[in-house]
Design goal:
Number of helices: 7
Structural class: alpha/beta
Helix content: 40-55%
Strand content: 25-35%
Number of strands: 22
Shape: flat
Mean pLDDT: 81
Length: about 400
């Protein structure tokens, strides 16, 4: 919450100097069919209903749902719980949410990420599509190439004139599906499509082995372990207070660190990418992405220190003990990263909890710096009184 007001003020300041850019923060955005918006729009809202004409880029961050039924002459970026696009977009579309549904006419490319992602039968897409989610349903018609990555099920129907590339545990091809190019897929089960469904070639790639360890994975994680070790030694030496506060926060309030880090990991990269897409906000976007990347990497060092301290059962704060704990903890973390069955969940846990502890720790350190002089005043007064008494 402390970051919200400065960010809003920053964007308002930028909008006053950037001709053709408007920043809007409100509970509800409702653009009727009769309305025409000429300027680039940056919108932060709870609910959004856009049915008019937007002549420049549109960026929407919503806490609930976004309905896009209008005409968009440039790019559309949207992030919300439910995102529904039924209008016409002349350029590219970038959407993210729990549920994303696209049923409009898109002249450009589509990049979409959601838990449930659906391209409806009414959708017509002229460009390429990259779709990522747990469950992906592709209907409608598209003229470009399609790449789909799903953690559960991919269901395909409709017409795809280009190549189709799928990575998913389960793939369902409906009888009305028509693929004009090649179908390349990675799945546990072999596909047996009906005759005439695929005009190009059918290519299958076997999924990676689910064995506990592999030689290549161990070598790769060993190299990353050494890199983290080389970065961790100077970080702990140069920033001992930040390191101590962050590692203590993980031990005292792990759940708070976890959810703060998870929210930051979701919002900061998206917000940084949105900023980079606008020329005037490139420095801010680069700062956000660079800061998030730095914290995501340093989070492993903080978590390694915490895990190593718990394993060695040592609260000794000497630099040798601290570095020894970091080595042990990082070795445990990168060993876990080499196990395919738990690799992704461990990485998400480490990055989220470590990033959250760093953010909370930085705010607490800032408060200590601000409040420090106030706490030192009584000590200075007491010292002055003692000096006066000695002179008397």
């Amino acid at each position: 919450m402390q970051l919200k007001l400065p960010l809003l003020l920053l964007f308002i300041l930028l909008s006053t100097h950037a001709r053709g850019i408007q920043f809007i923060s409100t509970n509800l955005v409702d653009i009727a069919k009769s309305e025409t918006i000429n300027d680039e729009q940056w919108i932060y809202t709870i609910d959004a209903e856009v049915n008019g004409i937007v002549k420049d880029d549109l960026f929407i961050l919503s806490g609930n749902q976004i309905n896009l039924g209008g005409t968009f002459e440039h790019n559309v970026w949207g992030m919300g719980t439910l995102v529904n696009l039924t209008g016409k977009v002349q350029h590219n579309v970038r959407l993210m949410g729990k549920t994303v549904q696209i049923g409009g006419h898109i002249n450009g490319n589509i990049l979409a990420l959601a838990d449930t992602l659906k391209i409806t039968p009414k959708a017509t897409i002229q460009g390429d599509m990259k779709l990522m989610g747990n469950n992906v349903i592709l209907e409608g018609s598209t003229q470009g190439n399609v790449t789909i990555t799903a953690s559960r099920v991919v269901t395909i129907s409709g017409i795809i004139e280009g190549d189709l590339n799928i990575i998913a545990p389960e793939i369902i091809l409906q009888r009305n599906t028509r693929i004009g190019g090649d179908l390349t897929y990675t799945a546990g089960k072999e596909l047996v499509p009906a005759e005439g469904l695929i005009s190009g070639q059918l290519k299958r790639t076997l999924p990676p082995s689910s064995s506990a360890f592999s030689k290549d994975q161990l070598i790769s994680q060993l190299m990353w372990f050494l890199a983290a070790l080389l970065a961790g030694i100077p970080f702990i030496t140069l920033f001992p207070i930040t390191t101590a506060i962050s590692s203590q926060l993980i031990r005292t309030m792990p759940w708070k660190c976890l959810w703060v880090g998870a929210v930051a990991t979701l919002i900061l990269p998206v917000f940084g990418i949105l900023c980079i897409s606008s020329v005037i906000s490139i420095p801010l976007g680069a700062l956000l992405l660079g800061g998030w990347g730095f914290m995501a990497y340093i989070s492993r060092i903080i978590m390694g220190l915490v895990i190593g301290t718990l394993v060695l059962r040592s609260d000794n704060t000497s630099i040798n003990r601290v570095l020894r704990a970091m080595v042990v903890g990082l070795a445990i973390i990168y060993t876990a990263f080499a196990i395919p069955a738990i690799s992704w969940s461990m990485q998400i846990l480490v990055i989220s909890m470590g990033t959250g502890s760093l953010l909370i720790g930085l705010f607490q350190k800032r408060q200590l710096i601000i409040q420090g002089p106030k706490k030192l005043n009584p000590l200075e007064e007491l010292s002055n009184q003692e000096t006066t008494n000695q002179e008397e």
